[in-house]
Amino acid sequence: MQALKRQNIESSRRSNGQEIHVGISDCKVARQPSHLVTVALGSCVGIALYEPVMKVGGLLHIMLPNSKQFPGTVKPAKFADTGIPFMLLEMRRAGARLSHLQVKIAGGAQMFSGRNNNFQLNIGERNIQAVRAVLKQLGLNLLAEDVGGNRGRTMGLDTSTGQVMIRTLGSSVRLI
Amino acid sequence: MDINRILIVDDAAFMRMMLKNILTKNGYEIVAEADNGAAAVGMYKSQKPDLVIMDITMPGMNGIDGLKAIRSADPNANVIMCSAMGQQAMVMEAIQAGAKDFIVKPFQQERILQAIERVQSRA
Amino acid sequence: MLLEENDMYFDALQELSNIGLGNAATALADLLNKKVEIAVPEACFVDLEGIMAKFDDLGELAACINLEVQGDVRGTIVFVFTQKSILKLIDMLMGQEIGTTMELDFMGESAAMEIGNILSGSFMNAIGSMTGLLLNASVPMFAFDMVGAAFSSSVLASGHYDEKILSIDTMFYQAQEQIMGHFFLLPEVGCLDKLFESLGLLAC
């Protein structure tokens, strides 16, 4: 876990305005100038944190709501309940003041059509609810969101401005 | 007995279209379409087709249950199963429940036409 | 049971999959009324994050068809076809010139689902014949969107996300046309044992 933390901060020092990719069950924190991007959020939820004075940003891509069902897990970024606190720690280590965070979320779509009753279609919705609950618990106010629907999303955070850009197939790019 | 009027049952619109094309081209009339077993039973009772071609894997009521329901409403009903699932046990179950034939997808046009002719000659 | 690649159980699973997919290729050939060949499938056991890493472009459009396997062996089958491949398949299926279908409409979506249904049906028929086990499929679920989004959502919705996924990359060839397809099997806990038992691989 320690090695992982160091790695996240390292990559932010090397960024120089580059795109930093955040994969599934992943979390990256960076100082300006850089773009944190996570591609193809389906039922997963992307959480972007931004501290506007120190200009530090973080992007987390969670897959599932709750880590309690999976004891012994090694990836905090996989779950809403462990990922968001993990990202907060990373943000603080990068110099962010946690009392001044802007929070934006995206994702949690229901992407499938078809009539199989056993298919757990509400994972997206459960992820959204879990993220909202964890944010509330941590005293973080949600500034903007682009959640639900049927389409996959790509989410990007510009650490120079705090702008979050959402891209969906068949739609123009939106800023939230 | 002559087979002219056919009820097509499959949850895939595409498959219904394909079957409709083959059958109408060969002189059969498609009197109704259904996308699950329950709807099939309703259509059968209202349309009284000469033959039903029915898929197995469908949402709600599957084709085997649909077959049983149709046969209990009309013991003389002619039903041909048409499914991607073709294991021995399934074929047996369908035949024992009264299906006249069992066609495994994908099928050649001839296979389905022959199956209908066989039902016609034995009815 | 922990499956390591290169052990006897993994070999058996690879062989089962080869035969299953071979049958699926035959079914595809019959469906298209054309000769379809298949490149030897490469199998590996990987978790979801690992599979995501295999896709070059997670944002690429792809058709994702899910079916649940029920009966003696339970799990989920997922077929992933890139946009180019699924449009080609639909053209072939409809007897049209390749390039005619440029986007997926309602009928195209139904055709794609039916393709997935038939491919997995013949896969399951083959496994069923070999093992004597009964395998049944559910109604297919379909998504056409960024491959990363569709596939990850697929795995999560199946409920089998905490197990390793059997991933088989395979290529179907029809004359000069290449149809790239990914096949994934997500077995329910304990079901692989049943498979191996029926093949006489597990000692009591």
Polypeptide structure, described:
The complex is a heterotrimer of chains A (176), B (123) and C (204). Chain A is α+β, with helices and mostly antiparallel strands. Chain A has a single domain (2-167), classed as 2-Layer Sandwich (60s Ribosomal Protein L30, Chain: A), CATH 3.30.1330. Chain A contains three helices and ten strands; from the N terminus they run H-E-E-E-E-E-H-E-H-E-E-E-E. Chain A has a five-stranded mixed sheet, with no helix packed on it. In chain A, strand 9 and strand 10 (174-175) form a beta hairpin. Chain A is globular and about 50 Å long. Chain B is of the alpha/beta class and 123 residues long. Helix content of chain B is 47%, strand content 20%. Chain B has a single domain (5-108), classed as 3-Layer(aba) Sandwich (Rossmann fold), CATH 3.40.50. Chain C contains six helices and eight strands; from the N terminus they run H-E-E-H-E-E-H-H-E-E-H-E-E-H. In chain C, a hairpin with a 2-residue loop joins strand 7 and strand 8. Chain C starts with 7 loop residues before the first helix and ends in a 6-residue tail after the last helix. Chains in contact: A-B, A-C, B-C. Chains A and C meet through strand 3 of A and helix 2, strand 3, strand 6 and helix 5 of C.
Helix content of chain C: 40-55%
Level-1 CATH class name of chain C: Alpha Beta
What's the alpha carbon Rg of chain C, rounded to whole Å? 16 Å
| Cα gyration radius of chain B (Å) | 13 Å
CATH topology title of chain C: Chemotaxis protein chec
Count of DSSP strands of chain B: 5
Identify the CATH homologous superfamily of chain C.
CheC-like
